[in-house]
Design a protein that fits this description.
7 helices, about 65% helix
């Protein structure tokens, strides 16, 4: 998963796994799930839906619009068996690409559909990546003072954000390990 279209593919497949939806619903759910991080337009969504349909990962059918007072029906998209297999394969991945900035938010939004071991590997990888980023930021601060107070504020803000994320991730990791320990002790 290296680019925006593969991230969008995963998000769409994950949403359609929950329920069939028409394009407006999909866009609305994508924006609810991820809009604060990256807004999705129809110009991005529909080409991806077309590609997913061409690959037989999703299927579409026209919904009767007369009951809703519409002149024409809406196209409803649903996951195919091949799409379910693809989603399962994507959700089982836990390599470096899954914890990078471009992918982590979508992966995290689909954690309810992801197995516990994979969630833990992704969280640990993300924490390691963010700890590396924190070390790099601290090193830059130590090497020399920025030229002005605004640049200093920007560095301070970046440090605080990364520190907060590392702390948040550690809490999630501890909780995942606690759930895993509890489930194995009751088995």
């Amino acid at each position: 998963m290296r680019n925006r279209s593969s991230v969008l593919e995963l998000a769409i497949l994950g949403l359609l796994h929950v329920a069939p939806m028409h394009g407006y619903q999909l866009r609305k759910r994508l924006n609810e799930m991820l809009g604060m991080l990256r807004p999705f337009s129809y110009g991005t969504l529909y080409p991806c839906l077309k590609t997913l349909a061409a690959r037989a990962l999703i299927a579409s059918s026209e919904e009767d619009g007369s009951a809703a007072g519409a002149r024409r029906g809406r196209i409803v998209y649903r996951l195919t068996a091949l799409g379910s297999d693809r989603l399962e394969s994507l959700l089982g991945q836990a390599g470096p690409a899954t914890w990078e900035d471009e992918n982590f938010d979508v992966r995290f939004a689909l954690f309810a559909q992801t197995d516990a071991d994979t969630r833990l590997r992704i969280l640990e990888g993300r924490r390691t990546r963010m700890a590396e980023r924190l070390d790099a930021l601290l090193g830059a601060v130590r090497r020399g003072a920025p030229a002005d107070e605004y640049t200093q504020e920007l560095q301070r803000h970046a440090l605080e954000q990364v520190e907060r994320e590392v702390h948040w991730l550690q809490g999630l990791i501890d909780r995942e390990r606690g759930h895993h320990a509890a489930s194995t002790s009751t088995s």
